[in-house]
Design a protein that fits this description.
Chain lengths: ~110, ~110
């Protein structure tokens, strides 16, 4: 099946899309610190191949309340699977959770 | 303010992240046709600078029900603003809507 071929594509990159909405009680400084903590992960976890992020500037009113998008790129599913339980990632998640209103994560193999 | 500087960054690229969940009544063929219709848009709309997509392969159970992710890249907010009302995009949206369970769109200027 084509979909399974895509999911196992050994030549593409694996995108890990992470969306956050923060609690209204979290301060700008607390959110800034969490942004910085996420940005620091590529320097701590070798398996991260690419990293970018930004805050919403869309005009369609379809964000479903999410304000932050982080795009983490891996070269393999194994690298993603080493990233998730990595102590530096887990430390970030622990700091994040008290401030998180909601989260969405979707991964895909990048096809054209 | 740093966040506003980021949002107006004239040197980065503007990412347009689009997530879909399709209705359970939509067939695989109907969904495949919609995937193909979205993939055809970069060939029809000059303002699209980059395009990739894929279906969920995440392992964290945080997709919130979304199955498809499309990442459309623009070089400017003006290009995004020409893409949204473009007849080819609107034709795709009209074909999509009867099959759409839910949609999420978030745009961001790609920062490192």
């Amino acid at each position: 099946m084509m979909r399974e071929q895509r999911s196992e594509n050994p030549f593409g990159v694996l995108r890990h899309v992470v969306l956050f909405a923060f609690k209204g009680t979290s301060t700008h400084e607390e959110i800034r610190n969490l942004e910085d903590a996420f940005r620091a992960l590529p320097g701590k976890i070798d398996e991260v191949h690419g990293f970018e992020w930004g805050t919403d500037v869309s005009v369609e009113n379809l964000t479903q309340g999410f304000t932050h998008c982080f795009l983490v790129t891996f070269l393999s599913a194994n690298d993603r699977d080493r990233y998730l339980p990595h102590p530096a990632h887990q430390e970030f998640v622990a700091a994040l959770e008290p401030h998180l209103e909601k989260v969405l994560v979707i991964d895909y193999w990048a096809n054209q």
